[in-house]
Design goal:
With about 300 residues, the chain is α/β, with parallel strands linked by helices. The protein has helices at about 10-20, 25-35, 70-80, 100-105, 115-130, 145-150, 170-175, 210, 225-235, 265, 270-275, 280-290; strands spanning about 85-90, 110-115, 135-140, 160-165, 180-190, 200, 235-240, 245-250, 295.
């Protein structure tokens, strides 16, 4: 059995707690507001990535983490905007996939996250920038409350983007979501499972990634599982970011010339962070097989 490395997440949490105690809220939230004000990339797509295959050619991060700003910019350059609405759950106030659409493309939207502090940061920064088109809600999202949270906050059925990253029940929440019909879906996948197996964590209302296993390896769903779910819901897989974090889907009626439906193996990118820590794809898969994932 491959040794399962454990990240020092308790140390990170302790540092965050100490910052909250020592640094005033206005200073911490002000840093978020300042990040929103930094300039976006003007030259697009990046020339240096012209030979990169797939969606990786368009990647860059302005206020996203793994190149999503560039990928979404490319997709909407191709398909245009319709509703200019997004829903994103599991977001960071200083770094999430919808921020560029909010700040540069005049989107309306709903943000949801379990952290009240994160929501407070967002609301502070939004006020500083004069933005009142976005609702940020603190909620621990479950299959039972997801749809009511969306309906109660005035989200129309037809939206341009759904971004989903909750480090746990991602598969089950997308499966349960019927009240909106996004044209583009960005959803985190667990690349450690590889491209072949269709696995997800079993549904648990109170799922918390590091409480379930301190390594952080036990979370989410494989790309094959999400592709299968997407097909059932009327979406086709078009690719993944180069870090092996997010998968991108288009609704079946949304087309881009030259962009075709991919298999999980064709779209798959391995987990760059884990590879960088010296954990091979084979070792990652060995670890995943030792954990109680559910086959789809």
């Amino acid at each position: 059995m491959t040794h399962i490395p454990v990240k020092k997440y308790r140390v990170r949490r302790a540092r965050k707690w100490l910052k909250r105690k020592l640094i005033p809220f206005s200073v911490r939230a002000g840093k978020v507001s300042a990040k929103w004000a930094k300039p976006d990339r003007k030259r697009f797509p990046p020339r240096t990535q012209a030979d990169v295959p797939g969606l990786g050619r368009y990647e860059y991060s302005w206020l996203s983490q793994n190149g999503e700003d560039g990928i979404l910019r490319y997709l909407f350059d191709e398909i245009g905007f319709e509703s200019r609405w997004f829903v994103e759950f599991g977001f960071g106030a200083a770094q999430c996939n919808a921020l560029r659409l909010m700040l540069k493309e005049d989107f309306h939207g709903l943000l949801m996250d379990g952290s009240a502090e994160n929501v407070d940061y967002f609301n502070y920064a939004a006020k500083q920038h004069g933005i009142d088109r976005i609702t940020a809600v603190q909620a621990f999202i479950t299959r039972g409350n997801l749809q009511s949270l969306i309906r109660d906050n005035g989200v129309p059925r037809d939206i341009d983007l759904l971004s989903l990253d909750v480090d746990g029940n991602d598969y089950w929440l997308w499966e349960a979501l019927e009240c909106i019909s996004p044209r583009v879906v960005c959803i985190e996948y667990n690349a450690g499972i590889g491209p072949e197996l269709a696995l997800t964590v079993p549904y648990d209302d109170s799922f918390e990634r590091y409480s379930k296993h301190p390594s952080g390896f036990y979370y989410g769903a494989s790309l094959a599982a999400l592709r299968s779910l997407g097909q059932r819901k009327g979406y086709y897989l078009i690719g993944c970011d180069s870090t092996g974090t997010n998968a991108f889907f288009l609704r079946d009626d949304v087309e881009i010339e030259g962009v075709t439906a991919l298999t999980a193996r064709e779209a798959f990118r391995p987990h760059a962070n884990w590879l960088g820590r010296g954990i091979s794809e084979a070792d990652q898969l060995d670890i995943m097989r030792s954990m109680p994932y559910q086959e789809i």
